[in-house]
Design a protein that fits this description.
Blueprint: H1 2-17, H2 20-41, H3 48-63, H4 70-80, H5 82-108, H6 112-141, H7 146-159, H8 161-180, H9 182-278
Helix pairs in contact: 2-3, 2-4, 2-9, 3-4, 3-5, 3-6, 3-9, 5-6, 6-7, 7-8, 8-9
């Protein structure tokens, strides 16, 4: 473990000594390659979730110096997480479709029904907004069931609210501007194909990694505390067992001593009775044996 840490530190120190321009060009080339892979992976539409997961998985691995080949690594991560990521993406589409239907209903009706569905729509939108930013990075990072991943995404969003805000701003603001102002999208559409997806994912990965490290350290600390508590409990139980055995042995010795004392008292009583029967007293205090 120490050797791996030292090797990692040596890599990081060696990379830090490289000229800034070279590091910037390396990062640009990496983001460009990741963006091309991501766009190609999104072409069937229903594979957007798997492509997002592979994009974040590669960003994490490249930033941690765990992967050097972008294309082969992306394909591997795409295949590995395809099933779970695709299911998650399709469920998100269903959720968006339901919210869109509720929005249309709200526009067409009035009164209590409109108020009720507005309230439901707000709750659904908040839940989706809390889950989405961390959903695919968590799938990329950990091997959990989809339900656990969704729960963890919501917990991380609430726990690290400021980080969630930064990730949402990084993704939402550029997309919102392009949708709100089509002239902007017409001017920079090729940047989305060549760089922007990879650049946003690369930037937000720094935030994701910090959160993951903090959460993993918290889990390690909790497990260590539980281990120490379990050890103390075992020691206490062992001490209680030893004390219980000692008390039991002491009680047995006391009972044995008590039984012996009772027997001795009974023997003395019998001897005294026998002496009174076998002997007698005269008026002068002289004892004669009765024949």
């Amino acid at each position: 473990m120490n050797e791996m840490t030292n090797n990692q530190d040596n890599k990081n120190s060696g990379r830090d000594k490289e000229p800034f321009l070279r590091r910037a060009m390396d990062a640009f080339g990496t983001m460009f390659a990741l963006n091309i892979c991501f766009v190609i992976g999104c072409i069937p539409i229903f594979t957007i979730g798997a492509s997002f997961t592979a994009l974040y998985a590669m960003c994490i691995r490249l930033q941690e110096d765990e992967e050097e080949t972008v294309v082969s690594g992306f394909i591997h991560e795409f295949k590995r997480s395809f099933k779970q990521s695709t299911i998650a993406f399709l469920l998100l589409l269903v959720a968006v479709a339901v919210m869109l239907a509720e929005y249309i209903m709200i526009k067409r009706v009035t009164g209590f029904i409109s108020t009720f569905y507005t309230f439901v729509l707000i709750i659904e939108a908040v839940l989706v907004a809390l889950v989405v930013p961390f959903l695919f990075p968590l799938i990329a990072r950990y091997n959990n069931t989809l339900s656990i991943t969704v729960r963890n995404a919501m917990v991380l969003s609430i726990t690290y609210l400021w980080s969630w805000v930064k990730v949402v701003i990084a993704w939402f603001v550029p997309i919102f501007i392009c949708v709100k102002y089509p002239v902007v999208f017409v001017s920079i559409w090729y940047m989305w194909l060549l760089l922007l997806f990879g650049a946003i994912a690369w930037g937000t990965t720094h935030t994701m990694r910090k959160i993951f490290r903090l959460n993993e350290q918290r889990i390690i600390d909790t497990a260590e505390k539980e281990r120490k508590a379990a050890e103390e409990a075992l020691l206490n139980n062992a001490s209680l067992r030893i004390l219980s055995r000692w008390l039991s042995a002491l009680r047995n010795h006391v009972h044995t001593f008590y039984d012996s004392t009772v027997l001795l008292n009974e023997d003395l009583k019998h001897l005294t009775s026998l002496a009174l029967i076998c002997t007698g007293n005269n008026d002068n205090g002289i004892v004669f044996l009765n024949m």
